[in-house]
Amino acid sequence: MTRTMVRGGSGVRAAAALSLALVVSTGAAACGASPDSSPTSRVERGTVATRVSASGALASVTSQNLGFQKSAQLKELNVKVGDLVQPGQVLARQDDFTFRQALQQAEGMLQQQEATLSRLRAGVAVPNAEASLDQVRRILDKTKTSVDKQVDAARLAAHRAKLKWETDQKAYNAAKKALENCLGKPGSLPSDPTGSPGGGGAAGGGMDPTAGTGSALAADPSAGGGGGSAPSMPSAPRSPGGLLGGLGSAIVPDCSKEQQAVAAATAAATASKTAYLAAKSQAEVVEAGGAVTVENARNAVVTAENLVKSASADRPGTIEAQEGLVASARAAVALANRDVENSVLRAPVGGSVSAITGAVGEYVSGAAMTTALAPGTNASIPGVGAAASSDSAGQASSGLSATRPGGGAFIVLNNVNTFQVVVPFEESDAAKVSPNQKVRVTFDAIPDLERDGTVLSIAPSGTNISGVTNYYATILLLDSDPRLRAGLTAEAGVQTAQTENVLMVPNAAVTKQGGQSFVNIPGPDGKPMRKQFEPGMVGDTTTEVRSGLNQGQEVLITQANPSGPGGRGGSIGGGGGGVGGGN
After folding, report:
1. N or C terminus: which one in the chain shows less Cβ crowding within 10 Å?
2. For 312-338, how does the pLDDT look when each residue is reduced to its tens digit (9 = 90+)?
3. Looking at the domain covering 62-93+345-372+389-414, what would its CATH class be?
4. Are 404 and 429 within 8 A, CB to CB?
5. E-assigned strands of 291-416?
6. Which CATH code fits 7-59+418-556?
7. What are residue 439's phi and psi, to 5 degrees?
8. Residue 107 CB burial class (10 angstroms; 0-12, 13-18, ≥19)
9. Can you give the pTM of this predicted structure?
């Protein structure tokens, strides 16, 4: 829709008076006045302008949806709808018990991670590993010393047992020789009564060494076979026939002492050999066990050395990893602390509370809240008036809605000191609207109030309103008024073009023919005469005169309702040439 505003010499009142004169003149003609009498106007100097108009709604310059970040029970509500608040004022509080507990947990975790980092930075792992290595090395040295001593002791015991065995063997050999000498039969007894690899053993032990010689010696009935047992000694000689029977017989010597010495020496040699074998076996066991013990101690040293190398190589990476854990714990503390702070809702700016959704004791949701912003500003698109007329069509087509008064927001805060108009323009008019254009705003609810404004911004994308593409424009009011309220319906006329301080004639007086422009002026005889002129800019109600007409010259109004710029409607005496055509 277009609206013409005439400024300059006559101003708006002159345009209104002209319209009234047109109505009066037309009425007079209808009541029987002369058909040649037509309403007139004059060539005047002023401003030729074109405007596009549309209806919108008044909105606060700043409108914010306020709410809590997370859901919790509402503990305190300090404002009511309509209250004026100051920046930083506490509006409401949540029960922050859960948030504070989470903060304490996060702080405890941070302390733990920082303590671990301090230990790593102090380098405790490497010194501890080195100390452990030194310790196991000392243990290895002491283990070697201890094992060596045990092996030496066992070997010494075995050596001493061997020496004892050799000594007892020598004693046996001496006793054996004495017995053989006594019996007069050298070599009749075994040289090694214990059956060692170096001796022949007791061959035929228990047998009388003189057997087979024809003597009266009898075998020892207690003698047994097998080496290692003491050889049986020859018994004392007996006379088979008494004194007479012994005549002519050989006299056997008494070797009982020698026989006893041989028996004792055999027992001693056998015992010493057994002791030697036991000592030798024990020495072997001690040596093998000591070797295992030493290898275990040496393995502990290798393990400790690996720990030192690992601790030294891994220390930088371990510190960096722990630093990451500390940073993560600090972030958790910051988030938990922010949750505690966000449990108190404060006014970010001063303004008026326009909506509250929630009461004390209820659980206030922390759901996301979004605002449909008007072009070029932080204000929302109003939920009332023409600016919200896209709501029904928008819901049907896209599921989105520009309707607000509050919506899901806990508190809606408006700035009541400065207002702007959010207006949807049809695409044909929107093409003429651009930032910084002058605007005249009127209000249906306040007929006597007009305010100047300027176009702040226009949306780059269109919105479907009742099947017609519209573009939202934001118009900032230059002056406010106590009677203004958010949501008031406003009519905005955007001045799209203008030429100031030029000669102009009403569009209703202009006719066109063959690409040329004409007006009818009163002739000498009072009849209309057609006069050509050069037009300039064609406004909504007036046309600029560049040449052909003089200021103050009278012209006839030939169109009661011009159809648009240039006055292309019918004309009285127009067409191919009006009455009194020509110059």
Report:
1. C
2. 776 788 888 989 999 999 999 999 999
3. mainly beta
4. no
5. 344-346, 351-356, 363-364, 411-414
6. 2.40.30.170
7. -135, 140
8. middle
9. 0.42
